[in-house]
Design a protein that fits this description.
The complex is a heterodimer.
Chain A lengths: L1 H36 L1 H4 L3 E3 L5 E4 L37 H18 L26 E2 L1 H15 L3 H10 L1 E2 L10 E3 H13 L1
Antiparallel strand pairs in A: 1-2, 3-5, 4-5
Chain B lengths: L2 H29 L5 H17 L9 H24 L16 H12 L9 H4 L2 H30 L10 H27 L17 H10 L20 H25 L3 H28 L2 H5 L15 H14 L14 H12 L10 H21 L4 E2 L2 E2 L2 H27 L1 H4 L7 H15 L12 E2 L10 E2 L1 H29 L17 H32 L5
Antiparallel strand pairs in B: 1-2, 3-4
Helix pairs in contact in B: 1-9, 1-10, 1-12, 2-7, 3-4, 3-6, 3-18, 4-18, 6-7, 6-8, 6-18, 7-8, 7-9, 8-9, 9-10, 9-12, 10-12, 10-13, 10-19, 12-13, 13-19, 14-15, 14-19, 15-17, 15-18, 17-18, 17-19
Classes of the chains: A mainly alpha, B mainly alpha.
């Protein structure tokens, strides 16, 4: 019994000390260094407009309301919420999943086919019609962006080649040239297009 | 299923092989009391900590005293964490002004973090203050991981040829793990993650964007195979895992310690080949699991094919990770006891979801949790040795130590406790009205959800088919006006606590029985346990136990889904 009491006392002291060191000291030290060394990244990689107003984060996808002149993000379960993230939890054999994907595919074709008449349902990249994990995936696949190029170039009156160059400039490549998949950052691409148009 | 994808998987396996001897050798030096470089700086801190705790670092425990210290520390941790979470409304660093979550949800969360499970019925950014995340959850991320490592180190000492019958001092192992292994690696990793875009700030939410002390928590969440995310969608959230590079770092953080402990084991028992043999068994099972998930996900889901969309299954996956790195992460997080996710597990295809489930069902011995994985694996090693002994009619022995009746009984108890727990809790949850209140969908997917939930909790994993719910929140989500589903919360808590401490006690008892036992020199009749033949036997034993136990359950859920080309 005395041994148990000794262990419990040691455990209590250990927990208090660990809470101070690991629970406060460690995260506050990391915060301090991060805020000095990587202030942009540590605060959410925020993107501002010309007047300095925050319009989002380059890491968080947003909705672009189906506007013809903008590249469109992937479907989001949460309406692109950055304050309450959630999975769709759409199962691979759920009838509801099938219906949701079919509805997204119809909407995608309705939006893109007027500008790209050869587009078929089977040629739609899967990322364009299936919801992302985070609901705020900032990227679309390169194939998805290429299809949307026709619409955006027409709506903005820009040459196709110029839009394609911008896509290349806003594509985040693989890590070490190997890991992950290339993705086109939709927010920064649309902002670059806005700038291109106003020039 | 591109060549690029296969190359990623192959290179990642290579990275694990490369890291294992380096980190494993370092940890062996830490736990045999050798002076490591960091000890020059942190030595005074270590000794000061012992004085505060009033423990004598030179005093070693037998297995019962060691287990008592582990249980005492875990009990106090549980009470402390429960108090912090319930009192968060009165504590600092609470920019969103969150009150406490319902008591049953908090009960589940507390059991979850103290057992290194990190099962989450709550969404972090909508329910927890920064104080609860930092001083509550992240502290247990460190502590529960350190407990797991301390226990396996004690177990290794039992297997090693030492002249004493003790297993070491828990407080010393705990301290050295934290000071020389977890804290330094987590610190460096946190800064690397920030450089990639993981947020680290104490500011309040602004413009609808929630930030917090994420990077510091992310690093230990993965390194300690904890898995509980700051955000609800875990490592899929760009603020937790912004780039393909951060994803690579996170995957390595998860697997490095569990893998490296095999090398630590080899060095501490005086035969590196023994460590590599165990490692080889783990790596083989892991490679098969990853490959199957990758093929299944690349093939796409029935729902998508029926909707006329070709290509791989991107539902619940992020573009920057793609199918290869999402499959790899799903396999890594379930062969280890991590449970962090970078994709929605519930949206994996039938077989893509079956493999993570099956990986957990092996008892997470393929790398496994920090510490608990190797500890459980050593039980399987004893089982394999025992089976081989039966076949050839010799007294089984491992590393020169005879395995007696008592050790075999304890081994059986240790390996069967968790599978029984999984099946019993799943059966209760699927057969009762109270259990079905947690389902998001019926049919095979509903069964898969339930099976996954109790497999994950009893094995202390923490990943989820996240449709399964124990927490009902209003819109927009928060704690005010929310309620828990007490049945799921408490059944899950029971599974997590029993799943953590029953195998832990069994394996400590085995180690205690083996400690100090005389080592017989190897003779011509000794079965070698460092050969490919033994690795095959070991893998076979693991598969045999897992398959016999779980195939009927797997058939009812994920296998039906995988084979059916239709929706339900």
């Amino acid at each position: 019994m005395r041994a148990l009491r000794r262990d419990l006392t040691a455990a209590l002291v250990a927990l208090v000390v660990l809470t101070l060191v690991l629970g406060l000291g460690y995260p506050l030290l990391v915060t301090g260094i991060a805020q000095v060394a990587f202030p942009g990244a540590a605060n959410g990689s925020l993107v501002r407009d010309g007047a300095g107003r925050v319009i989002g984060s380059r890491l968080l996808g947003q909705g672009f309301g189906g506007r013809a002149r903008d590249f469109q993000s992937r479907p989001s379960q949460t309406g692109y919420s950055a304050s309450a993230t959630a999975f769709s939890n759409a199962g691979p054999n759920d009838a509801a999943t099938r219906a949701a994907i079919a509805a997204s595919a119809r909407a995608y074709l309705r939006r893109e086919r007027p500008y790209d008449p050869a587009l078929t349902r089977a040629a739609i990249p899967p990322d364009a019609v299936q919801t992302s994990a985070s609901g705020v995936d900032p990227h679309i696949s390169v194939a998805n962006a290429r299809i949307q190029t026709h619409r955006v170039a027409t709506a903005r009156g820009l040459p196709l080649a110029r839009v394609e160059r911008l896509i290349a400039a806003h594509t985040d490549g693989r890590a070490l040239g190997l890991f992950g998949e290339p993705g086109v950052n939709v927010l920064t691409l649309n902002l670059a297009l806005d700038e291109e148009g106003s020039r | 299923m591109t060549a690029q994808g296969w190359l990623q998987l192959a290179v990642f396996l290579g990275l694990i092989v490369a890291v294992t001897p380096l980190l494993g050798g370092y940890m062996a030096r830490v736990f045999t009391g050798e002076r490591v470089l960091l000890a020059r700086v942190l030595g005074p801190v270590e000794r000061g900590f012992y004085r505060l705790l009033r423990v004598d670092p030179a005093h070693e425990h037998d297995w019962k005293a060691y287990a008592r210290a582990v249980l005492a520390f875990s009990l106090v941790s549980w009470l402390g964490l429960y108090a912090i979470l319930q009192l968060q409304g009165h504590l600092p660093f609470n920019p969103a002004g969150f009150g406490p979550a319902p008591w049953d949800v908090t009960f589940n969360t507390t059991s979850s973090y103290v057992t290194n499970t990190n099962w989450q019925y709550y969404g972090g950014e909508t329910t927890l203050s920064n104080f609860s995340q930092m001083a509550g959850l992240a502290v247990q991320n460190f502590a529960s991981a350190a407990v797991g490592i301390a226990v396996v180190v004690a177990v290794i000492r039992g297997f090693a040829a030492r002249s004493v019958a003790t297993l070491g001092n828990f407080w010393v192992d705990l301290t050295r793990t934290l000071l020389y292994v977890l804290l330094p690696i987590a610190f460096v990793a946190a800064l690397v993650l920030v450089s990639q875009g993981v947020v680290q700030s104490l500011a309040a939410a602004h413009h609808g964007i929630v930030v917090g002390p994420v990077a510091s928590q992310e690093a230990i969440k993965l390194l300690g195979t904890n898995g509980g995310g700051f955000y609800n969608v875990n490592s899929a959230m760009p603020f937790e895992n912004p780039t393909a590079f951060s994803n690579l770092v996170e995957m390595l953080l998860i697997v490095c310690i569990p893998a490296a402990l095999t090398a630590t084991f080899g060095r501490m028992v005086g035969s590196r080949r023994q460590g590599w043999a165990v490692f080889a068994g783990m790596l083989a099972l892991f490679a098969v699991a990853v490959a199957i998930v990758f093929v299944a996900e690349g093939h796409g889901s029935p729902a998508q094919h029926l909707a006329g969309v070709a290509g791989g299954n991107m539902e619940g996956k992020e573009v920057r990770f793609g199918i290869a790195d999402s499959s790899l992460f799903a396999a890594i997080t379930t062969v280890t006891s991590c449970g962090a996710v970078n994709a929605a597990m519930q949206s994996l295809t039938g077989f893509g979801g079956a493999l993570p489930m099956a990986s957990m069902m092996t008892g997470e011995v393929v790398f496994g949790g920090v510490g608990s994985g190797l500890a459980s694996m050593l039980l399987f090693v004893l089982l394999a040795v025992f089976l081989a002994g039966l076949m050839v009619g010799r007294t089984p022995e491992y590393l020169g130590k005879k395995i007696g009746v008592r050790e075999v009984k304890l081994t059986m108890a240790g390996t069967l406790a968790v599978p029984l727990l999984v099946l019993a809790t799943t059966a209760v949850a699927i057969a009762t009205r109270a259990g079905k209140a947690s389902l998001s969908v019926h049919g095979p997917q509903g069964f898969s959800e339930t099976l996954y939930a109790y497999t994950s909790q009893a094995n202390n994993n923490g990943s989820a088919f996240a449709g399964y719910s124990g927490f009902v929140q209003p819109h927009p989500p928060g704690n005010a006006g929310a309620s828990g589903i007490a049945f799921a919360d408490l059944l899950g808590s029971g599974a997590m606590l029993a799943g953590r401490f029953l195998p832990l006690l069994a394996v400590l008892a085995v180690a205690g029985a083996l400690a100090g036992r005389r080592v017989a020199p190897a003779g011509p009749g000794t079965m070698r346990t460092d050969t490919p033949t033994f690795v095959v036997l070991l893998v076979g034993t693991i598969l045999l136990v897992a398959l016999l136990t779980f195939v009927p359950a797997l058939l009812l859920g994920p296998v039906v889904q995988g084979l059916a080309g239709r929706t339900f």
